[in-house]
Design brief:
Blueprint (H helix, E strand, L loop, with lengths): L1 E7 L15 E4 L6 H7 L10 E3 L2 E2 L11 E5 L6
Parallel strand pairs: 1-5
Antiparallel strand pairs: 1-2, 3-4, 3-5
């Protein structure tokens, strides 16, 4: 399945030449979960904030869908 992955904040610095306007095109096997994608991208779930697929929040077990846009945000903090 083909996914478009957009990275916000520090996760984007993990990929040389990352262009936010186009994101990353990633091909994953059918039935892949969010955790499978994070492992493929070498991103630690503990170091990430919100993650959504087509504007719906995900958890690590969420199944991905062909053609979806995945948005990965850095943790948000402050006070």
């Amino acid at each position: 399945m083909k996914l478009n992955v957009k990275l916000y904040g520090s996760p984007s610095r993990s990929f040389d030449g990352y262009e936010h306007s186009s994101g990353l095109e990633v091909i994953m096997p059918e039935g892949s979960s969010l955790l499978d994608l994070l492992v493929y991208l070498n991103l630690s779930p503990e170091r990430l904030g919100l993650i959504s697929m087509d504007n719906k929040l995900l958890n690590e077990k969420s199944q991905l869908k062909d053609g979806a846009q995945i948005r990965i945000f850095r943790p948000i903090s402050g006070g």
